Each structure stands twice: as structure tokens, then as C-alpha cells.
């Protein structure tokens, strides 16, 4: 055992010397900082390509004009089966919609009511489609109008508020049927819903003081275009007290004109008054204003009518 132990003691010093000589050289702080300052890239730098600017080309929009086909000399309407159906039962979309005289259409509505057993006093409506185009790109602005119908269908009188700072004008307004008349002191009461009305009229001098009511009243806010701003208060009250208001939405007018229990002549005169007032809103040199007219009751289908017979002679020629 003595011999092996002596050989081991001889080998150990040699192994220790080899171990310490094989160590990696030590790095100083200056070398470490130098290495940190150098940028390290673990990937290959990709070459960046500049984006080419795209030149926008303005393409002219080609608007295809709808060609109006003249069907007068044809044996049948373009795209339809025939001018009129032969049988009582037929597909409506295969034939042109019949256009009735206004008096005939009103009589048909009254017959529909008897067949349907619907209320006799149901409202009668008219729907007008308008051509709002003027010269070039100009159009007729949507408007609101109040007219006096020859035969009013409402039994109650409209509630009207008149804004004026003149005590004498306020007294005249109350004598001519105004519900409330006063100055800027009414603004707070209207905002608090203490005063409500169907129409609001005003003199020109007080309109600026009523601007806080613009969001509250919206379409009822007094405007000169609607005829609710002026100096002749009795005349305005005469129109709005029993007047009928209609408005243009997009290119359509849809409003009530009568009740079905009224005489046929009364309904016809009310329709004529609405059509005449609407047609006067566009100059005659730009062509007809009304393109199509439909009358109906609450429970019936819509009937196309010949509105040209309701226009004055000058409008027909235009």
C-alpha cells in the first residue's frame, strides 16, 4: 500500500500545475466597457427599400343616364306583359299601374271603406314625389309650408304663442286668437315646459332673443321662410290658427288632406290646394315640380292620380 500512495502524491502536484495554467485569461474593466460600446448584431441588416409614391389618377365618373323609353307607339309597355290585364286576377308587377282621375280615386277609396268595414272618419293622405333639380348642380331646398285648406278637417283650433315686446301688439294678438303673447320673459317658461303650443310666431326685432329656444322648438322655431316671422300679426294668426302644415322630406311630401267621411268635392278641393301650393315652389322654366301623386286612406292601397288636372293652366303648359 506504501508504493501506490507515494505514486499518487507524485501525480497530484503535476495535475494542479496543469489546471492553473489552462485557465482563461482575465478581462479588465476597460476591455469590458469597450466591448459593450460596440454595437452587437445577431442578424443580418436588411436593405430598406424606399416606398415609391403612388400618383393618384383621377378617374372621371361616367354617369349612365337612364334613357326614357317612349311607349306610346308600342303594342305593350317596355318590360311588361301588356297595357292592361284581361282577367280579374293578375300579377300586378307585370302591368303598368293604372292612373285614375282624382274624383274617381276618391270614390274608390270610399268603396274600399265599405268593403273593409273600416272607420268612416279615417284620414286621407296624399303622397307627392318631387323633382328637386334646378340648373346645373343646384336643387330646391326642402321646405315647410302652412296653407289654409278650403275645408279644414280639424275641429280644434291650433294653439299659438306670439313673441312681441310691444304691449299694443300683444293685446292685438290676444284679441285675434293667440293663446299666449309676450316678450323674452316667455323663454324660461317654454324651456321649463310650462307653455306649449302648435305654432310660434314672432316679430323680427325679437328673434335674436329667442335663440335659446332653437334646440327646444326645432322645426317650430319662428322663421321668415315659413311665414312665422312678420309684422302683420293678425294676418299670420289667421293662417296658423286654422292652417295646415306640410313639409318636404328628401324628395317626398306625405301629408293628410281630409277625412274619408267628408264629401267628395271637399276632399278634391283640399287636394287641389295642396298640389297647387307645392307646384308654386319651383320656377316653371325648370320643368314640372311634381313627378307622381298617390292618394290613399289609412286602410286602403295607394291609388295613382292624374295630378296635371289639378294644376293651373300655366303650370300645365310649363
From TrEMBL:
Transmembrane segments: none
Species this protein is from: Cirrhinus molitorella (mud carp)
Keywords on record: Mitochondrion, Ribonucleoprotein, Ribosomal protein, Transit peptide
Protein name in UniProt: Large ribosomal subunit protein uL1m
UniProt entry tagged with the keyword Metal-binding: no
Gene3D superfamilies the UniProt entry points to: 3.30.190.20, 3.40.50.790
Any coiled-coil regions, as ranges: none
Record-level GO cellular component terms: mitochondrial inner membrane; ribonucleoprotein complex; ribosome
Annotated localization: Mitochondrion
Keyword Transcription regulation applies: no
Family label: Belongs to the universal ribosomal protein uL1 family.
InterPro entries the record matches: Ribosomal_uL1-like, Ribosomal_uL1/biogenesis, Ribosomal_uL1_3-a/b-sand
